[in-house]
Amino acid sequence: MVHIFGYEITLFQIIATVFGIGLLVFIHELGHFMMAKKFGIRVEKFAFGFGPELIGVTYGETRYSICAIPLGGMVKMPGESIEDSTGSPDEFMSQPWYRRLVIAFFGPFMNYILAVILFVIVIYFWGLAKPTNEPVIGEVLSGYPAAKAGIRPGDRILKIDAAPVASWIEMAEMLHKYPDRKMILTVRRDGADMTIGITAKKDPSSGLGLIGIAPRISIERVSFVSSVGLSVKMVVYQSIFTLKYLGEKIVRWEKPEVAGPIGVIQILAKAARAGWDSLLHLLAVISVALGLFNLLPIPLVDGGHIMLSLVEGITRRRLNKKIIQVTNSVGLFIILAIFMFATYSDLARLGLNFGKFIR
Is 114 a domain residue? Predict the structure, then answer.
């Protein structure tokens, strides 16, 4: 047992988190590797992990490696940047625009395929989790008003102030309406009724009142075919929801809630403690997010390569070296800004208490 970011982390959680992240990035790189091989591009190295090589074998023109830090993977192709390109026909930049587009696209595409597979495994073997509409507490989040007021899982909310509550949706709507205002909840626990005073916390992004509760979950068994269909729908829904959320934040000039490396590690470790179903479900969610991010038209990521390839295909002209260098510099700035903002958000959620991160 070790203490990281103020939390007790088991060895299993560390291994599950590290290899979970490694799997997502490795599958992404596998997509690039398969398409590069299909189009006859020379792949100099294909590795799981990074850092010093632990095990490796050279087969044909490619060095296959397992490296010391299992947090991703890499595909090294000659001529990946305009500066390194010599014009050899087996280099990446020497390929027609549509081939480069396919190679770039298949990394994110493999993340989407992995997400569907993981969702199918969770739904088929553990069942489809559905929140019930009863006003019964299924989970209480630590640090929120409900936990501080003494509300427990299994409590049934009968009334908010004097208004009776018939469903979870009705209860949630009433709580959302009154942030920063004290309310009296009538709660039934173990057959006895009691009253609890509580003040909903105002969510800074939505302005809604939150007390930190989640509904009870029911499990529904579904067939394999149904689990595949549901998994595809979940992947599509999550992608659309994320784009809509980011779009609304940009239009309103509001700060989005994002998780950086610290946040991802923290929630993965928590999911690993909850069980394999929670861990696989979260890995599927992160895989969708990774695939979607890499499809955004940001230079240096796959979406940037796709965008430049499309421009070349439409104009029928190769982009000159100067334009590519400028776009790459812009892309690097955007990526660093996103990374710094996400990391800052992680630290802010931890209260900026650097002393408790690692001890």
Answer: yes
The number of folded domains in the chain is 2
Tokens 């929670």 belong to residue: 278
Does 332 fall in a domain?
A: yes
Contacts of 208 (CB under 8 A, 6+ apart): 176, 179, 202
Same domain for 103 and 15: yes
User: Vertex 23, ends 217 and 18: CA angle to 5°?
Assistant: 80
Same domain, 174 and 320: no
264 and 346 inside one domain: yes
- C-alpha 79/C-alpha 69 separation (Å) is 26
Number of CB atoms found within 10 A of residue 144's CB: 17
The answer to whether residues 171 and 320 belong to one domain is no
In terms of C-beta density within 10 A (0-12 exposed, 13-18 middle, 19 or more buried), how is residue 86 classed?
A: exposed
Identify the domain containing residue 351 by its residue range: 2-42+77-127+253-356
For residues 291 and 143, state if they share a domain.
no
Per-residue pLDDT of the chain (359 residues; tens, 9 = 90+): 555 555 566 777 778 888 888 889 899 999 999 999 999 999 999 998 878 889 999 998 899 998 887 777 889 998 887 777 777 888 888 889 999 999 999 999 999 999 999 999 999 999 998 888 999 999 998 888 999 999 999 999 999 998 999 999 999 998 888 888 899 999 999 999 999 999 998 887 667 889 999 999 888 899 999 999 999 999 999 999 989 888 887 777 766 676 666 667 777 777 877 788 889 999 999 999 999 999 988 888 899 889 989 998 999 887 777 777 788 778 778 878 877 877 776 666 555 544 444 44
Using alpha carbons only, give the angle 341, 343, 348 rounded to the nearest 5 degrees.
90
Cβ–Cβ under 8 Å, residues 154 and 137: yes
